[in-house]
Write a structure and sequence with these properties.
This protein has 13 helices and 19 strands. Helices cover 28% and strands 17% of the residues. It folds into two domains: 405 residues, Alkaline Phosphatase, subunit A; 78 residues, Arylsulfatase, C-terminal domain. It is an alpha/beta fold.
Length: 512
């Protein structure tokens, strides 16, 4: 196994420098003469935390296809999302810009304004260079029809097309309720979950999506939307195997609703799921948050039932991914395709007593994401990379491998040299953010190194955790005089990041 450590570093003519100090274009590796441009297969789940894979150290969850992908390629241990919820991070994936730059700092509603054809995005650029580009499944950035790169065959992969297929499913193909189940609209709840679900309907402050839909789905795996999307992805691979393509297969699970059919539901015993050491108590500052309130209502038994369904969803997505990867190999494209797997953000997974992600915090469970990249022509099998990777680095990396210049608008850097063992790192920090930063309320900023995590909030609240000594983020050292110098240094780096990226939060960060 090849491992790239934080002591690794990029060598230039002037000596060794951090990857973070270089402009994106300087890290681009031009294609050699006659070198074929790779296809790009971008596989993305929603709300899958970094530890929800066996190859990441979770010995109970079953992810054989993701494990195989990691064995054949490179797994990153320190991938950090731009914002710990959907739309802002998804926008950063495709633009290479921080949310405060591209402007999408909140989730785009179903009919809300997202991106239009003027956006400088990965697929737009590759489409103009001759790639066949497809966005399948969850988009969360407006209407894909507004972008030229997505106008073809979207009707064949849409939710509407799936619904027509779903309606044709014969009743005898559906799963059946079992003794003790409480069936509600095709979902089998445990009695405790059914009671909470019915009571939650009267909650005045509940989120728009009902987070108490937790149980066994009666829709067989092969008829789920995600499985149907996998088949459509396979169709596109077969159809365009003679041309360069970029296909984004983006699915909802393991995001709520937390429902999953057998055999995946019954695959996991809730009593055997290991809860985090921090599960015992919700921090006072987050007790009134959505995840805090919901977890209190669920109790430990309910949290375990949720995690059982979550694990089942992850394994079912792994099954879908395995079929797509097998199709890629059958088409003879596995050597010529850069395969990337990640998720847009994580889930608390019982950390600090909470589930879901809708709390104003930066805990490891929600900001760190799984990230695997495989390209047999240049990435050594079994590579593990500890270097921090930010969401904004995806676009420069994709374009770098495609031999296409990275636009000046991109704020990330290509990680190709890291993947190929040509670059090393000196603990390049990761950043995460919430809100635009141009008003005093509702925004915050985070910096993470391998040793520290520092969070700064607009209301003056600060959090400082020594990740090396306190990986569970139990003790906030923000008011500890022994850590004052470290916090000051981290705050200075946060200001430097704000200056570099023209973050509106700079004005306020400079004052606190």
């Amino acid at each position: 196994m090849v491992r790239i450590t934080r002591r690794d570093f990029i060598k230039t003519a002037g000596g060794f420098v951090s990857a973070a100090t270089l402009a994106p274009g300087l890290l681009q590796e031009a294609l050699a003469e006659g070198e074929k441009r790779p296809n790009i297969l971008f596989l993305m789940t929603d709300q899958q935390t970094y530890s929800a894979m066996r190859c990441a150290g979770n010995s109970y969850i079953q992810t054989p296809n993701l494990d195989r992908l990691a064995q054949d390629g490179a797994r990153f241990t320190s991938s950090v999302c731009a914002t710990p919820f959907c739309s802002p991070t998804r926008a950063s994936f495709i633009t290479g810009e921080w949310p405060h730059t591209h402007g999408i700092v909140k989730n785009v509603e179903a009919k809300g304004k997202g991106f239009d054809d003027s956006v400088v995005a990965t697929e737009q650029i590759l489409f103009d260079k001759g790639y066949q580009t497809f966005q399948m499944g969850k988009w969360h950035l407006g209407d894909t029809a507004d972008l030229r790169c997505y106008h073809r065959e979207q009707d064949l992969t849409s939710g509407g097309a799936y619904e027509q297929v779903r309606k044709s499913l014969p009743d005898e193909q559906m799963g059946k309720a079992r003794s003790g189940d409480v069936e509600i609209s095709g979902v089998c709840f445990t009695p405790e979950m059914a009671e909470l679900h019915n009571r939650w309907a009267d909650e005045k402050n509940r989120a728009g999506q009902d987070l108490t839909v937790i149980g066994r789905s009666l829709v067989p795996p092969e008829y789920n939307y995600e499985s149907w999307l996998a088949e459509r992805c396979i169709d596109l691979i077969k159809k365009y195997k003679e041309r360069n393509f970029m296909i984004t297969w983006s699915v909802g699970p393991p995001h709520a609703y937390w429902i999953v059919p057998d055999p995946y539901y019954s695959m996991y015993d809730p009593s055997k799921i290991k809860l985090p050491a921090s599960f015992g108590e919700i921090p006072e500052v987050y007790k009134n948050s959505g995840p805090g309130h919901l977890s209190t209502e669920l109790g430990e038994k309910g949290v375990r039932e949720m995690m059982r369904c979550y694990y089942g969803q992850v394994t079912m997505m792994d099954w879908c991914i395995g079929r797509i990867l097998n199709a890629l190999k059958t088409a003879g494209l596995d050597q010529d395709t850069l395969v990337v797997f990640t998720s847009d953000h994580g889930d608390m997974q019982g950390g600090h007593g909470m589930i879901d992600k809708a709390l104003p915090a930066y805990y490891e469970e929600i900001v760190r994401t799984p990230l695997i990249m495989r390209y047999p022509r240049s990435i050594k099998p079994g590579t593990v990379i500890d270097t921090h990777v930010n969401t904004v680095d995806f676009m420069p990396t994709f374009l770098d491998y495609s031999g296409v210049p990275v636009p000046k608008t991109a704020q990330g850097v290509s990680v190709r040299r890291l993947l190929e063992g040509k670059a090393k790192d000196d603990d390049r920090p990761a950043f995460c953010e919430r809100g635009l930063g141009d008003v005093k309320g509702g925004w915050s900023r985070m910096i993470r190194t391998h040793e520290w995590k520092y969070d700064c909030y607009a209301d003056g609240r600060k959090e400082l955790f020594n990740l090396a000594k306190d990986p569970g983020e139990i003790t906030n050292l923000a008011n500890d005089t022994s850590a004052a110098a470290d916090m000051k240094a981290l705050h200075k780096k946060l200001i430097g990041q704000a200056e570099k990226t023209k973050d509106p939060a700079l004005e306020f960060l400079a004052k606190v």
